[in-house]
Amino acid sequence: MFCATAITPCLPYEVHDPFFFYLRQLFLGHVSLNAGGIFANQIAPGYSFNLSQLLHLSPRAQLLPLALIWAGMLALLFRLTIPPATSRVVRWAPVLFSRFLLVFSLAPLLWDPYAIERPGSAHGLTGGMAPGRFLQNVSSPGANATFLHPEKTLPRHDDVIDFAWNDANEPFRAPFCGMWRGEIYIPVSGIYSFVLESDDGSALYLNSGLLIDHWRIGSPPRQTAAVTLSKGFLPITVQYENVIFSGTLRLFWAPPGKPGEIIPPEFLFSR
Questions:
Q1: How far apart are CA 162 and CA 38, in angstroms?
Q2: Cβ pair 257, 214 in contact under 8 A
Q3: Each residue of 1-23: pLDDT tens digit?
Q4: Which own/partner contact pairs does 2-7 have at CB distance under 8 Å and 24+ positions apart?
Q5: Phi then psi for 66, rounded to 5 degrees?
Q6: How many CB atoms are located within 10 Å of the residue 174 CB?
Q7: 37-92 residue pLDDT tens
Q8: Structural domains in the chain?
Q9: pTM, to two decimals
C-alpha cells in the first residue's frame, strides 16, 4: 500500500507481476509522477500529492518525505495508544517498522541495480514528427526515409515509445508521420520478442535491418517478431504514419525468460 499510494503508473497493458513492477519503478525513481492518480475515474481526474516534487528532491528520493511522515505518525500513534504494561516486542514493533520504511525509501539513493550508462548519450530516443506522409514509397519507406515536409519537422526526445494521439494531443492534423532513432541495450544474449503496436502504419529496424513491417493498413494492430541477439548496444529505428483520425504507437519487448513490457528508458539511448 505504501508503494501503491506513491507510484502512479499509466499503463496500456496488464502488469505481469505487480510487486516487482512497483519495486522496479521505485529503484528507477518513477514514483509520484502526478500524471493521473491511481484513484482517478472517468468523471474526476484525481492526482497524487507529491511533496517531494515541491521540495525539488531527486526522483529516486521521491518516497522519502512520505516515509518520514508515515514513520513519525506511526511511532507517535503507537506510543499514545499502547499501554505501558505491553510486552517489549509489541512496543518495539512500530519503531522497527518505521525504521524499515526509512531504509526502504533510502535504498534507491544508495543502490541502483538498473544503472546502464552510455557516455555521451541520454536515455530515450531522438526523432521528429512532421505533417503529411513519408516522401518514399508509402508501402515501405525504408530505413533512410525522409518526411514529405521536412521543413515542418517537430523535434522530439522521448523516453519510451508509448503514444496515444487524439484530437486533443496530436502534433498535427492527420496525416502525419514520425521517426525515432538511437540505440537499444541488450542486457543478456538470447531470443528476444518485439511487439510493435500501431494505428496506422509503422516499422521497426534493429541493427540496420527491418525486423517488423507494419505498413499494411487494416492489418492486426500488433505485429510480433522474435530474434536472437547478443549482449551489447544495437542501432534502433522506429517509424510511424497516421493516415486518418486518432493514432497509437507502442513498442514492447520480452527479454529471455521475462514477460513483455514497454521497452523501458534505461535500455534506450540517443545522442
A1: 19
A2: no
A3: 444 444 444 454 556 666 776 67
A4: 2/63, 2/66, 2/67, 2/70, 2/101, 2/104, 3/31, 3/63, 4/38, 5/38, 5/48, 5/66, 6/31, 6/32, 6/48, 6/62, 6/63, 6/66, 7/31, 7/32, 7/33, 7/38
A5: -65, -40
A6: 18
A7: 444 444 444 444 556 666 777 667 777 777 777 777 777 777 777 776 666 766 67
A8: 18-110 (no CATH), 122-270 (2.60.120.1560)
A9: 0.66
